[in-house]
Amino acid sequence: MTPPDRERVRSAASTLLLFLLAVLSTSGQPAGNAAYDVILRHGTIFDGSGGKSYQADLGIQNGYIAEIGDLSARRAPVDLDVRGLFVAPGFINIHSHAAPAALPTAQNMLQQGVTTEILNPDGGGSTDIADQLTRSASAGLAVNIGAYIGFNSVWASVVGQADRRPTPEEITQMRVLIERNLKAGAFGVAAGLDYKPGYFAHTSEVVQVVSAASRWRTNFPNHERLTPETNFSSRTGIAETIRIGSEAGLVPVITHMKVQGHEQGSAAEVIGMMDRASAGGHYTAADAYPYLAGQTGLGSLTVPAWAQDGGRPEMLKRFQDPELRKRIAREIEDALNARFGGAEGVYLPQTQQQLTEIMRERQAPAGEAVIHILEQGNVPAILRFGSEDDLVRILQNPTTSIACDCGASLDTRNHPRFFGTFPRVLGHYVRETHALTWEDAIRKMTGLPASTVGIVDRGFLMPGMAADVTVFDPDRIIDHATYENPVLPSDGVRYVLVNGAVAFRDGKATGARAGRRLLRSVHMPSRPMELQSRRSVSFTGKAGAPNSDIRIALNVSQTGDANHAKGTFRLTDSRTKMTIEATAIGLLQTAPQWASFTGRVRLLPTGGERAITVTVDLADPLATDHAASVTVDVEDDYHLAALVDPLQAKLSSSRN
Q1: pLDDT-above-70 percentage for the chain
Q2: Is 0.85 topped by the overall pTM?
């Protein structure tokens, strides 16, 4: 073991000792007499795994799920009868454009059942996410937030807005910037190669830059690049996303997946591309929202790339050149026709006008009308695309998460997805059309997005998981927001709990600000959601150097048809005579050379009970020689991340 590794072990052991000594001075309730903070009684539990629902009570303590079952003998200050309602994990939006000013209330997201938002999709956002998250949380958070590091922002900060090739030194600078933000907790590297200046990056250059994230085992969501050279082909753009992710060693994520223009009707072919990549060892995922129109800046996807070279000031200069203006107008019309069904497919929410209305007012063709609008500013535009049949196929794809391409917002002129996405899926595509089952739709909003971005302690209703919970009425849940009135609230969500606090009740946010900043570590890999197999992990060894006093022994397994894992976990420290021992195991998740589970533990000799999350990395990608490591989190009081000396270790997964 190298000196740095020994230092890591000594530091981890010291941290654990201090924590255990502190625990000795605290009192805790024995498991059999647990008094909970919140109890949800008589609900129908959908645990986020996609498995069958069941009737049970759910108890919450200290912001974590403590017990699921018959809690008739338990009491809690907040005791809610949710008979006839569905109880699900809080919905996770992995494509969030949340406005910082709206995060303290997040009314539009809570009324959809969303408890977690992952910021900076499409390649945007800050290049210092630690600072961004701190500032975003400064006034309190109604929901949890995490963040990607955006490729476009990284490219712009180093290369600028011009269409030019980066130097080798600039490639290195961008790689360093990406890894720095991964160390700070980024949930992946997001890109929007359809947006400038990311559009100017060659495929090979993108691979060079984002491959800096490969050893972090994370994901690459990308707004695919549609170019005039390919006649704005969605299939070509999606193929590029898969190629970049696969070559860079990341999970490709086809973000807000759609099939546009003349390729409508070919969703099955695109899904086949994803399936072939996954079968070839490059797991590929997606996210989608349940609408046939998107929203972005009017000029972002209509003005040709060459006209945007150098940024907005240079674009405005080109507008003033009569010959260039004619060419730009013509190419704008080509893009509108190929991607959005012509001028009829463009709606401006700020002024509530169709582009065709402005064309009539100005007696100008579409391209000239767009240029005139852009000279005033790059206003938002709702752009129609796609077919219903394609959308249904995309929503049904097993690796597609539901994500709204929206976020906490105070804007009243926006896309209806800001108020309607999640209830629309549940009300329309589950209850009304039966395109999805309740179990699978909820999985796509909870466990699947958690697995895609690497979250290990949210997305499921299991002992030890963070208590993010959404309770809704299956008979009433539906969206009402329209393009003309996008802020009409949805119906059906009754209660939303964020980290155990009731954040939404009786149709309104409560004002609770229990949201947290979520940070991803290397021990939280992006992974397929494979819970249908029998899986197990066993480990016996020492945390740290050979003379360490910390010993860990665990043996956990779960069958594909079981709603929780079984097994044992025990951590002992011979100096303090303290033992941490599992009383209940929640969900076991596995990936190659990696496993994680949550549960409840008893702290001996005090007898107090706490929530725990454990991960086992049999080949830690950041450790010297890929040594084994274990992380242990006991609620918010203690964190152990240490290299281990395994006497025995085994991890397996097989079909039942």
Answers
A1: 93
A2: yes
